Amino acid sequence: MDKSLFSNILKAQKPVSSDTAQRTMPADTRGTNLHHSLQQAMSAVNKKLLNKPEQVQLAFACLLAEGHLLIEDRPGLGKTTLALAMAQTLGLDHKRVQFTSDMLPSDILGVSIYHRDAEKFVFHKGPIFTQLLLADELNRGTPRTQSALLEAMAERQVSVDGATWPLGKPFFVIATQNPLDESGTFPLPDSQLDRFSLCLSLGYPSRQAEKNLYQPAHLQAMKKPLAAILDSETLHLAQQLASQVDAEESLVDYLQDLLQATREHPDIATGLSPRAGLALFRVAQALAFLDQRHYLLPEDVQRAFVPVARHRLRSLGGKHTGQQLASAILNDTPLV
Questions:
Q1: Are both 1-30+243-336 and 33-230 of the same fold?
Q2: Domain 33-230: CATH superfamily, name plus number
Q3: CATH annotation of 1-30+243-336
Q4: 62 phi, psi to nearest 5 deg
Q5: Over the stretch 81-91, which tens digit does the pLDDT of each residue have?
Q6: What pTM was computed for the model?
Q7: Please, where are the H alpha helices in the chain?
Q8: Under DSSP, is residue 103 helix (H, G, I), strand (E, B) or coil?
Q9: Per-residue pLDDT tens over the stretch 188-232
Q10: Which of 81, 98, 203, 247 registers the highest number of CB atoms within 10 A of its CB?
């Protein structure tokens, strides 16, 4: 991949003019208030998902980077709680699809039904027509059903019966995946894994956090939906501003050194794709934006690298996980 790729992307991004910002940004979110609203939203989600601030910030960064999020973990660790809390506090329309082995693509995309009175087929939209789609236990669906998401995730549109239907903005997929050693699961193909910008694992809560789960106040709060702090228009503006975070050429070189290391590693089946590199760049920009900076630091790239890479890397010998491979490459690649 040409080292000028990301530099050219940066040059092509033009900052939003002050006049445009005044027109598009609501009065209560101008300037630093936009960051304040994002911090409030993350704080609200953290009150539902205790002791997971890093995962919550990465999830928000994924959304600001206009990507999609894969959460891989055991059942009951808060994957669905995170998705629903984000949808509520961001004021997004959301739908949940529980994947099962007998589900068909039409259960997600929609189906054309013949209306006798009108003497024509009418397309009835499926749950994918929303702003935030929670694809719960995605790998319990068959490969045919899993593939129904491919076009929507990559091109933000759905093609059914020769017609193309655009999806709304934003369109954000949060998919949960159970470990493959559980019965009734189907591995996600590489083409689909590559469409997820980030992969997170929530893990078990700390002892104190789990103890807090049993408190009556927390149990009561879990039953109440979160108030919307942002809306889709404000979120779209935040995505635009995040994409304009500056990066020095040396940082772009460092990012591409990380990509190249995955392609040359003797124990990795396939290195990171250009799509993965762009996801890494965009997520790093979003992390900088959430920290109220208009420029990238090496720490932004480093924080984003393992979540971006872990689900894309496979060990040839099967001795190492994607997480281990990504961590080793991050540790072994110098920052020049």
A1: no
A2: P-loop containing nucleotide triphosphate hydrolases (3.40.50.300)
A3: 1.10.8.80
A4: -60, -45
A5: 898 899 999 99
A6: 0.85
A7: 5-12, 18-24, 32-48, 53-64, 79-89, 106-109, 143-146, 150-155, 190-193, 207-212, 216-223, 232-242, 249-264, 274-290, 298-309, 322-332
A8: coil
A9: 888 889 999 999 998 888 888 888 888 888 777 777 888 999 988
A10: 247
